[in-house]
Amino acid sequence: GKDVPFAEVLADMVRRDESDAARDVGPLTRPLDAVELVTDGLTADEVIERLVQIVDGKRHERQARDRERNG
To answer: How does pLDDT run across 11-34, given as a tens digit for each residue?
Structure first.
């Protein structure tokens, strides 16, 4: 690899995401049920803990819906 300034990498990512979102076929969009986890200032362990909480919460929501449907 080569050293690339952070600003250049960020600009490339933003440009790519804008291009992907604007394409006619299969544009990049956020799903309605997407979960965004802001990890700024968190340790790796804190991120993992939060992800586990999110997954467990979604699992419980799904189980509750399934119980409602199946009576």
So the answer is: 999 999 999 999 999 999 999 989
